[in-house]
Amino acid sequence: xxxxxxxxxxxxxxxxxxxxxxxEDDDGIRKATHRFVNRADPxxxxxxxxxxxYDWMTFQQVxxxxxxxxRVRS
Length: 74
Description:
The chain is an alpha+beta fold. It is 20% helix and 38% strand. It has 1 helix and 5 strands.
């Protein structure tokens, strides 16, 4: 089960993956918010809505997501 203690920490191209456990629902299931924070500007936060809230992203998924978002932004 996901928790604050087993959350990964990945960084790629100046972005840091900082997942957070939002809450635990009535059934005892914890959900995560998948956030990316730009190291140059901590107030610049990008929320990843493409990933399931019940598990963490892998490093490869982080790389693919950031590459996709950088193509969209440019």
